[in-house]
Write a structure and sequence with these properties.
The chain is an alpha+beta fold. The protein is built from 17 helices and 28 strands. The two termini are 33 Å apart. Bound molecules: protoporphyrin IX containing FE.
């Protein structure tokens, strides 16, 4: 067993080293990181030293974090390999095992068996590579130019690693004297995999018909354990489609192979009986990372850990807010009608003939405009309001918000061409609202001023994130994008546009669905609903998407001018902020002591948007958030709080209680993210 541990250990160290070499452009990387010592450091006695002490703490923490990474790359790799082998050793033979496997397990050679299987799978590849290597060496002797030479050297290293690994594995295979049948694999169903969705039950995943136990790899995953846990009990492929580095380099694939425990028995796949009468049977497949609040209709949000990774949210991770089944629309024949409403005689003259347009016309005859916009559901963070008192509607977390680059025709241009409406005549014609109808029977309106404003940027969008088609869940083939306004106005599957003196009828404008009442109203009884305007532009919002746990070992002590001792520790946090109406984010404040003191975060992507046309969110981060460590002990929890300020100097309210409302809308209270205190 020692030898098999060594083999796994070698594999990990080499895989990591290989990766490091390749990520540094071929040069061999020598890292020596100094780990922080376990006790607090006493630094100095002046106040300027307090600053130095903070800076020290910051850099020590950075080194510590780099140290964590390094640990993954070296020590943990080893401990992973041994814990993996130990775990397998402890396992009792499973009655479902084949005899050969049982024998193999009985002699404690499961790992070796896997390696042997892997070895055989790889023999052909190795042979091919040996050929390739010989060829390379010949070429190297032929004085290849410097750059090229480096590449070859790198490849040679890789093959050295491979040779080492295969040599060891071969020896192990020989030592079990052929008892480990390399091809005897355990078979599992997808249901078996799905049952292993937590650390307690062990974390399994599948990938291309193979089954893996990734439990012992969780803490070693370079992308973090939380991301890997998102795939617990599921197929990894949709995740790796997002993070293609896994498939583009062989590092992740090699690691995955060492975690294999069996294969999927596709013949035993449970038959899914399609209920032909189910109106949702044609809904599209959704990304498994989305948290499902309801499947029919689909109401799903991405986890914060993925939401803050990319400025433009990948389309498959966008929050889904549907009211009905996703309509099936043929883009080639789909038509959009533009009509005037029940207007005065004058207004009826305006549109003597209604216009019927199609997608091809929008694409061909109108300038293609692009807008990067954040869309947020009016009920985002409703779950936080529900903690005060249950409101009504989906209990969204913080993820009912996403950002994309949309492309399409300007609504303003289309209204001018097809209805003759513009900024000069709309008032005279008595037009106050533009109503959008979706093929799912949704309808919602926006004020005409927003639709016609040259600065409103309202789009009839047919593209999302540079993809030529909108995904079905996000309005294929055409949706409205009303930047800065609440999500519901961005009507999907657009089929009709109506110009009207009245706003849309139905729950989404005139009903209570998007009206905010005072915290004292638990029902609408006695309320004049018509007097309460429906939501259009949204208030300022900010969220902490990630924050690092606190390491007490990194605390530093210093004295201020009055000679008082202060022990502090630092942490880091990241998130996003956004405000409705295009109001740019001008500041983000973060606190780790219940709001007694605040530090200003650094604004990142999105900070350069125009002050009054900032349609998309602004990312922020802070890496030196200070926490008084004098009373902290391991196991404590700290809340990292955030609040933002927009270009109109709007700020967020402290608590949710003061803004609780019957429909659970507009929760923009300070957001809190809990971190743990560690030794
Ligand atoms: C057992 C399955 C997995 C294995 C073996 C694996 C392996 C790896 C490896 C080797 C890297 C480093 C790649 C590099 O530096 O080029 C990595 C990074 C990463 N992984 Fe995975 N991974 C797995 C599952 C996942 C899943 C399910 C997700 C997403 C939910 C994920 C997200 C990421 C991300 C975002 C990074 C980049 C981290 C960074 O750049 O900070 N991985 N993974």
């Amino acid at each position: 067993m020692k030898r098999s541990s060594f083999v796994l250990s070698s594999l990990f160290s080499e895989v990591v080293a290989l990766k490091r070499r390749s990520s540094k452009g071929g040069g061999i990387l020598c890292c020596s990181f100094s780990f922080a010592s376990s006790s607090s450091q006493y630094v100095s006695s002046s106040s300027s030293d307090a600053f130095l002490s903070r800076e020290n703490a910051r850099s020590t923490r950075k080194n510590h974090n780099r140290g964590k990474e390094e640990r993954w790359r070296t020590t943990k790799a080893r401990s992973f390999s041994s814990s993996q082998s130990n775990e397998k050793e402890k396992k009792k033979p499973n009655p479902r095992m084949s005899i050969v496997e049982a024998v193999s397990a009985a002699i404690g050679s499961f790992v070796i068996g896997s390696l042997a299987a892997y070895l055989i799978e790889q023999q052909e590849e190795q042979a091919a590579e040996t050929e390739e290597e010989k060829e390379e060496e010949t070429k190297m002797k032929e004085n290849i130019d410097d750059d090229d030479g480096k590449i070859k050297k790198k490849k040679k290293k890789k093959n050295t690693w491979r040779r080492m690994f295969f040599k060891e594995a071969k020896a192990e295979a020989a030592s079990v004297a052929g008892t480990a049948a390399p091809k005897a694999v355990k078979m599992y169903t997808r249901l078996d995999v799905a049952e292993h969705d937590s650390i307690e039950k062990r974390v399994w995943c599948s990938y291309k018909e193979n089954v893996y136990d990734v439990t012992d790899f969780l803490d070693n995953h370079p992308g973090g354990r939380d991301l890997l846990l998102l795939a617990a009990g599921k197929d990894i492929e949709p995740f790796w489609r997002l993070y293609q580095a896994h498939v583009n380099s062989d590092v992740a694939m090699e690691m995955l192979k060492t975690l294999k425990i069996g294969e999927l028995d596709l013949e035993k796949e449970p038959k899914v009986d399609v209920d032909e009468t189910d109106p949702y049977k044609n809904d599209p497949e959704r990304h498994p990372a989305l948290k499902c609040h309801s499947a029919k209709p689909a109401n799903m949000e991405p986890p914060l850990s993925l939401l803050r990774r990319e400025y433009l949210t990948p389309s498959s991770l966008w929050f889904v807010r549907n009211h009905s089944p996703v309509p099936i629309i043929d883009a080639a024949t789909h038509e959009i009608t533009i009509v005037s409403g029940e207007q005065s005689q004058d207004n009826l003259n305006l549109l003597r003939t209604k216009a019927v347009i199609n997608l091809e016309h929008l694409k061909k005859d109108f300038e293609k405009k692009t807008v990067v916009a954040t869309v947020q559901c009016g009920g985002n963070r409703r779950g936080g309001l529900d903690l005060i008192k249950k409101s009504s509607g989906t209990g969204w977390g913080e993820g009912a918000i996403s950002t994309a680059k949309f492309a399409g025709a300007s609504l303003r241009d289309v209204l001018e061409v097809h209805a003759g409406i513009n900024l000069h005549n709309y008032e005279r014609l008595g037009i106050k609202h533009v109503i959008f109808y979706g093929a799912d029977d949704m309808r919602a309106s926006i004020p005409i001023e927003k639709a016609l404003s040259p600065f409103g940027d309202v789009l009839l969008a047919y593209e999302m994130n540079d993809c030529e088609e909108l995904p079905r869940d996000h309005g294929y083939p055409l949706r409205v994008i009303v930047p800065g306004h609440v999500g519901v106005r961005n009507v999907k599957w657009l089929s009709k546009i109506k110009l009207c003196s009245e706003e849309a009828d139905g729950p989404w404008n005139r009903g209570i669905a998007y009206k905010g009442f005072g915290p004292g109203y638990s029902s609408v009884e006695g309320l004049n609903i018509d007097s309460v305007p429906t939501m259009q532009e949204m208030p300022i919002q900010s969220v902490v998407a990630e924050a690092e746990n606190i390491s007490l070992s990194l605390a530093t002590t210093s004295k201020n001018d009055d000679g008082e001792k202060r022990t502090v520790v630092q942490t880091s946090a990241k998130g996003f902020a956004w405000s409705g109406g295009g109001r740019a984010i001008i500041r983000v404040d973060v606190s780790a002591n219940k709001g007694l003191s605040w530090q200003t975060a650094t604004l990142k992507e999105g900070a350069d948007q125009p002050l009054s046309k900032a349609w998309a969110w602004t990312f922020w981060e802070i890496d030196d958030l200070e926490i008084d460590a004098s009373k902290l002990k391991p196991g404590d929890e700290i809340k990292v709080l955030v609040k933002a300020v927009d270009a109109s100097y709007n700020a967020q309210p402290e608590g949710a209680a003061a803004i609780w409302n019957l429909r659970g809308l507009n929760n923009n209270s300070w957001h809190a993210f809990t971190v743990k205190v560690e030794e």
